[in-house]
Structure to design on (293 residues):
């Protein structure tokens, strides 16, 4: 195995992992604030389509990424309005958001199906979005663990009642965390349609939003572990593609499910230690907060 082949394999793994890094880091922040948003898949799909349409018509990659981030943010704020202000069930609303994003992107994306997208310039095997995703991991870890804003987010995720009693703006912090999660999910979707698969096809995310949600649990709500989990999934994805290209005598259907199977196995191993999950999971995750006046 030549050195150039190994470098190409590593590069492909990092690129395949980049959408997951964006989406999982964003969802991690939302969950650290106590909000469970199962609509990551829908936000990624809408972000992917918005980025593809805008970049196709404008010829600008930067505008495409901005559109993808904006679309993800818009859906996240809709989710926040429903769950935080109107107090709808977070799980049901998140599932509805995924269905909405999937249907909306399928309908609006029909005229663009199969059209090629723009090509992103690279520096040292990677484009700027990869470096941005990598930078988001230490940045998020620093904010959550070393800043006052991060302390407040974690406090709201543990006990919003206590934070409210101390005069903290619980709902504003949760809106900000959910919005940040939607923005990064939109960026993850944008990267899929502009770099990983530079074209539009219905269902482009292929379940990556759900994998991002699983990675948050895999990471036990720690940003650095998100990166490791994303690289694991990216590596399995690249492995199955290379195995098919080499013509190994393994059914294609099995190779296609290999990345998802690996994710499930890792989650099963982690969930065998419920004490570890309880120690790290935000205590108020998924629970509604009612401010007492």
């Amino acid at each position: 195995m030549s050195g150039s082949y190994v470098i190409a394999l590593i590069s492909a793994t990092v690129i395949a992992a980049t959408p997951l890094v964006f989406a999982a880091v964003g969802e991690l922040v939302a969950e650290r604030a106590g909000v469970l948003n199962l609509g990551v898949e829908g936000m990624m799909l809408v972000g992917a389509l918005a980025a593809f349409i805008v970049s196709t018509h404008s010829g600008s990659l930067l505008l495409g990424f901005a559109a993808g981030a904006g679309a993800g943010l818009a859906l996240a704020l809709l989710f926040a309005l429903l769950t935080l202000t109107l107090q709808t069930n977070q799980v049901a609303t998140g599932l509805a958001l995924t269905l909405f994003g999937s249907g909306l992107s399928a309908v609006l994306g029909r005229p663009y199906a199969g059209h090629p997208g723009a090509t992103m310039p690279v520096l040292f095997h990677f484009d700027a979005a990869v470096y941005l995703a990598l930078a988001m991991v230490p940045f998020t870890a620093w904010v959550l663990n070393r800043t006052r804003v991060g302390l407040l987010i974690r406090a709201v995720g543990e006990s919003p009642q206590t934070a409210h009693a101390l005069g903290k703006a619980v709902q504003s912090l949760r809106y900000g965390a959910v919005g940040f999660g939607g923005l990064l999910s939109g960026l993850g979707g944008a990267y899929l349609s502009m770099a990983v698969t530079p074209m539009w096809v219905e269902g482009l995310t292929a379940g990556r939003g759900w994998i991002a949600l699983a990675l948050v649990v895999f990471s036990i709500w720690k940003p650095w572990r998100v990166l490791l989990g994303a690289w694991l999934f990216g590596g399995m994805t690249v492995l199955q593609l290379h195995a098919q290209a080499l013509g190994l005598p393994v059914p294609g259907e099995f190779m296609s499910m290999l990345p998802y199977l690996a994710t499930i196995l890792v989650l099963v191993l982690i969930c065998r230690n419920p004490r570890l999950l309880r120690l790290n999971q935000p205590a108020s995750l998924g629970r509604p907060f009612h401010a007492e006046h």
